[in-house]
Specification:
heterodimer, A: alpha+beta, six-stranded mixed beta barrel, 13 helices, B: 221 residues, alpha/beta, Rossmann fold, four-stranded antiparallel beta sheet, 36% helix, globular
C-alpha cells in the first residue's frame, strides 16, 4: 500500500473522530507524564533523605555519648550519666576495644568571626576537641591536627565544621539575610578568627584569647553547634580557664577490634548508663524513615501506574469499541485483515508509543524544571543534592514500556476479537 | 454454466427458532435473482449468510467453488472483496464521510490505485444521480443514501451484488431508474444480482423469483 493510499485510509478512518482520538492520546500522554514525573521526583526525594540521614561513622566504631542532654558550653545537664575518665578507662580495658578517640567540649564561651561572601559573619560557638582519627586517616592525612596555643602565632587553628550547622546556616540565616549558601566543599579553606573566653552571652574572668582559624574539613558526625578542633587545644583551654575542673568527655569514639564485636561493646556501654550510636543503628533508624518514605512513594507510583495503565487500557479499548461498527462495515466490504491491522498498528501502537515517549520526555522535563525551581528557592536543598529529580533511564523506559506493552497488548487482544467476530454481530446496533 | 454461489442444506437457528431449514440455492453468473417473502421469513438472514457475514449456519456454502467453512477470516475477506458486493438494508454508510469517500472506502483499504477508484466511483455516483461533493452522507436523503450504498457495493467490481431491499425508500420512478441502471451495469460488468424485493414492477425484471417460506426457497413462476 502506497503512502498516499495509507494516508487517505487513515484520514478517512479518523474523519469525525479526531477529537476522541486526540483526547484518548492526551490521556495516555498525561498518564506517562505523571508516571515519569513521580518516579523521577520520588527517587530524588529518596536521595535527599539518604543524604540527610547518612553517616560516615565506620562500621567498627561506636560513638559513646552521655545520657544527659548536652550542648557544649550551652550545656543543660539533666543529671544523666557523664563520660568520666573512669568510664573511658573501663571501656579501654575491654579486650574487644582496639582504640578510643575521645572528644571533649571546651567549657568556655567562644565565638567565631569571619567574612562570608564579603559580608562579616559572627556566631557563638562551642568548641569540641577531637583526635586526628575523627575523620579517618584518609581525610586528615594532609592536615597537621596537633595544635596548642603555642602554635597560634604562626599556624591556623584547624577546624572541622558540622555539615548540619551548614544546613542550619543555609536555611536559618543565609536565606533570610540574602547571604550566599554554603556547600561542604565550598567552605574548605575559609579563614576566620576564633575568640575564647567570651561570647555574646557570657564572659570569663580571664581575658579572651583570639586565634586565627581555617576550615579544613566538614563532618556529619559533629554535634550541631560544635566546631571540631584538635583535642589537646580544648584540653589546654579548659585547664587554663577552669583549672580545677574535672575532665568530662563529650563523646568517645570506640573502635572495636572486629566489626562483629560492636554489638557487645554497645551492650557494655549501655550497661554503664551511656548512649551508644553505631553505623548500623543510625542506618537502621534511617532505613525506617527512608523505608517509610520509599513505601509511600512506591504506593503512590504504583497507584499512578495502575490508574495510568487502566486509563490507557480503557482509552485504547474504548477507542476500538467505538469503532466496532466501522470495522464491521470495512470487514463486510472485504477489507484485508492486514490493512485493518495497519490501522491498529498506526493508531494504537505507533501513536500510543509516540505519545507515551513524548509524555515521558515532558515528564522528565517537568521533573527537571520542578527540581531546578525548588533548588533555586532553597539553598538547603542546593547544598544537599545536585538535583531533586533522578532519571534512571532504564527504569523510566521500563515503566513506560510496560505501560505501553500491557495497554496495547490488551487492546490488541480486543482488536483480535473484533476481527474474529462475525460481521453481522459487529453491524448490530 | 457453473454457479458462482452454491448453497446446500443451509440452516440457521436463533435460539429455539429455526429460520432456515435446509435451503438449497444456485446462483449463476449475470442472473438477476429476486427473493421475496413475508417480513421475518429470514430474507436478510439468507443474504447475510450468502454474503459470508453470518458464519453461524449449518450446511455448505460455496462461492466461486470455494467452501466458505474452510476459509480463514482473511481468506473470507479476500473472497468478499473479489466476488461480492453488498447493499445493506440500513445502508451502513460511515456518516462522517461524503458519498464519494464512502464509495472509494473499500478500494482505499484494499490498496487499489486511488485515482482510478475515485474516477470509477464518481462515474457510478453520477450514473446514480448522486453529486460527488463534500456533503456528508448524514445530510443526504434516505433515497440518496440508498444509492450511495449501491454505488459502494459496486465499487470493487463484484461477481455478485447482494442487495437487501435496494428500492425500499424510492418512489416508483426512481426505482425504475435505479433498476434500469443496474440492468445496464449488469450487462456491462456481468455480475449476478441477488435482491430482496417487494415491488411487483421490479420482480418482472428478475430472471428468477424465489420465495422464502417456512425456511426454504420456493421457485415462483
Amino acid at each position: 500500500m502506497k503512502w498516499t493510499e495509507t494516508r487517505t485510509a487513515l484520514h478517512l478512518w479518523n474523519r469525525g473522530h479526531w477529537r476522541d482520538y486526540v483526547f484518548s492520546q492526551g490521556m495516555l500522554f498525561v498518564a506517562s507524564l505523571l508516571l515519569v514525573f513521580f518516579i523521577a521526583i520520588g527517587l530524588g526525594v529518596q536521595n535527599l533523605l539518604d543524604r540527610f540521614l547518612s553517616t560516615d561513622l565506620p562500621a567498627e566504631q561506636v560513638r559513646v555519648t552521655p545520657s544527659g542532654v548536652q550542648a557544649g558550653f550551652f550545656q543543660t545537664e539533666s543529671g544523666g550519666v557523664e563520660i568520666t575518665e573512669e568510664a573511658r578507662n573501663e571501656l579501654e580495658s575491654s579486650l574487644l576495644v582496639q582504640r578510643i578517640d575521645p572528644q571533649i567540649y571546651a567549657r568556655v564561651p567562644a565565638y567565631l568571626k569571619g567574612l562570608l561572601g564579603g559580608q562579616p559573619y559572627y556566631t557563638d560557638i562551642t568548641l569540641e576537641g577531637v583526635t586526628g582519627q575523627f575523620l579517618g586517616d584518609s581525610l586528615l592525612k594532609d592536615i597537621d591536627w596537633s595544635y596548642t596555643l603555642a602554635d597560634s602565632a604562626d599556624r591556623f587553628l584547624p577546624i572541622i565544621l558540622s555539615e548540619n550547622l551548614l544546613l542550619l546556616y543555609n536555611a536559618g540565616f543565609a536565606e533570610p539575610n540574602d547571604l550566599i549558601g554554603l556547600t561542604p566543599e565550598g567552605v574548605l579553606g575559609i579563614e576566620c578568627t576564633v575568640t575564647l573566653g567570651m561570647s555574646s552571652i557570657a564572659e570569663m574572668d580571664r581575658p579572651p584569647i583570639t586565634v586565627r582559624a581555617r576550615i579544613e574539613a566538614t563532618s556529619r558526625n559533629m554535634n550541631l553547634f560544635a566546631i571540631g578542633v584538635p583535642f589537646e587545644f580544648v584540653d589546654q583551654v579548659n585547664s587554663m580557664y577552669i583549672p580545677d575542673g574535672t575532665r568530662r568527655y563529650s563523646a568517645l569514639v570506640v573502635t572495636a577490634k572486629r566489626a562483629e564485636d560492636v554489638p557487645e561493646i554497645v551492650r557494655l556501654v549501655e550497661e554503664m548508663g551511656l548512649r551508644a550510636e553505631t553505623r548500623r543503628g543510625i542506618a537502621q533508624k534511617a532505613e525506617i524513615l527512608v523505608g517509610s518514605v520509599t513505601a509511600a512513594l512506591s504506593a503512590l507510583a504504583g497507584a499512578i501506574l495502575l490508574s495510568a495503565l487502566s486509563s490507557a487500557i480503557h482509552t485504547l479499548v474504548m477507542d476500538l469499541r467505538n469503532r466496532r461498527f466501522a470495522l464491521g462495515v470495512l470487514m463486510a466490504l472485504g477489507t484485508p485483515h492486514n490493512r485493518l491491522a495497519m490501522i491498529f498498528a498506526f493508531q494504537i501502537l505507533f501513536m500510543s508509543a509516540l505519545t507515551m515517549i513524548l509524555g515521558a520526555a515532558l515528564g522528565c522535563l517537568l521533573a527537571w524544571g520542578a527540581s531546578s525551581a525548588l533548588l533555586s528557592l532553597s539553598s538547603v536543598l542546593r547544598v544537599s543534592v545536585d538535583s531533586l529529580a533522578v532519571f534512571p533511564i532504564g527504569w523510566l523506559a521500563a515503566g513506560t514500556g510496560f505501560m505501553l506493552l500491557i495497554s496495547t497488548g490488551i487492546a490488541y487482544v480486543f482488536f483480535g476479537r473484533i476481527l474474529r467476530t462475525p460481521v453481522t454481530r459487529l453491524l448490530r446496533p | 454454466m457453473d454457479s458462482i454461489i452454491r448453497a446446500r442444506d443451509i440452516q440457521r437457528e436463533f435460539g429455539d427458532i429455526r429460520v432456515l431449514e435446509g435451503l438449497d440455492l444456485d446462483v449463476r453468473p449475470g442472473e438477476f435473482l429476486a427473493i421475496v417473502g413475508r417480513s421475518g421469513a429470514g430474507k436478510s438472514t439468507l443474504l447475510a449468510i450468502l454474503g459470508t457475514h453470518d458464519l453461524d449456519h449449518g450446511g455448505r456454502l460455496e462461492i466461486s467453488g470455494r467452501d466458505t467453512a474452510l476459509l480463514s477470516p482473511p481468506e473470507l475477506a479476500a473472497l468478499r472483496r473479489e466476488y461480492l458486493g453488498f447493499v445493506f438494508q440500513d445502508f451502513h454508510l460511515l456518516p462522517e464521510l461524503t458519498a464519494l469517500e464512502n464509495v472509494i472506502l473499500p478500494a482505499v483499504f484494499s490498496g487499489r490505485d486511488l485515482g482510478t477508484a475515485r474516477t470509477q466511483a464518481a462515474e457510478v455516483l453520477s450514473r446514480l444521480s448522486i453529486r460527488a461533493d463534500e456533503t456528508p452522507t448524514t445530510l443526504l436523503s434516505r433515497g440518496e443514501r440508498q444509492r450511495v450504498a449501491m454505488a459502494r457495493g459496486l465499487a470493487n467490481g463484484p461477481s455478485v451484488l447482494m442487495a437487501d431491499e435496494p428500492s425500499a425508500s424510492l418512489d416508483a420512478e426512481s426505482e425504475q431508474t435505479l433498476f434500469n441502471l443496474l440492468d445496464d451495469l449488469r450487462r456491462e460488468q456481468g455480475f449476478a444480482l441477488i435482491a430482496v424485493i417487494h415491488s411487483r414492477a421490479v420482480l418482472e425484471r428478475a430472471d428468477r423469483v424465489l420465495e422464502l417460506r417456512d425456511g426454504i426457497l420456493h421457485e415462483v413462476d
